[in-house]
Specification:
With 140 residues, the chain is an all-alpha fold. It is 62% helix and 0% strand. The chain has one domain.
Length: 140
């Protein structure tokens, strides 16, 4: 019986699916900010005592990084950017929900938790063979 060591075609296909889902779902948030602006984010950042310009980094975390993840270029670094973006979002907007349940019984931050887990997984696994950088790319 042959064992799958995680380097076969199915593993690479799994990495592609994980990358694509994470990237596309985060990208929807970024596109929304492109069309509607980052005013609320800038306000939250400023309320936290940070320079308002920091709010514009959301474009990196929700547009640039997801596109890099989707295409498989600098994937590990881009996934870390998404991870940091999500941690900052939780810190700025979701701390009161951290230990609460939703109306349906799930964790109130399960979506954010899933984004964090997916970003961490992509950062650890890399892009795989089906990527612009290739399986052996330096940051993939």
């Amino acid at each position: 019986m042959q064992r799958n060591n995680g380097s076969g075609s199915s593993a690479d296909l799994g990495k592609l699916i994980l990358r694509a889902v994470l990237a596309l779902l985060i990208l929807f948030h970024g596109v929304s900010k492109i069309f509607n602006g980052v005013g609320p984010i800038v306000g939250m950042v400023q309320s936290a005592g940070l320079p308002p310009q920091v709010g514009y980094l959301v474009y990196i975390g929700e547009v640039v990084a997801p596109l890099l993840i989707l295409f498989g270029a600098w994937t590990r670094l881009a996934a870390l950017v998404v991870l940091i973006n999500m941690l900052v979002a939780i810190g700025l907007a979701h701390v009161p929900q951290l230990f609460t349940l939703s109306k349906t019984g799930g964790w109130a931050l399960e979506l954010q938790g899933m984004y964090i887990a997916a970003a961490l997984s992509v950062a650890l696994l890399g892009a795989g063979r089906y990527s612009a950088g290739g399986a052996s790319g330096r940051w993939n």
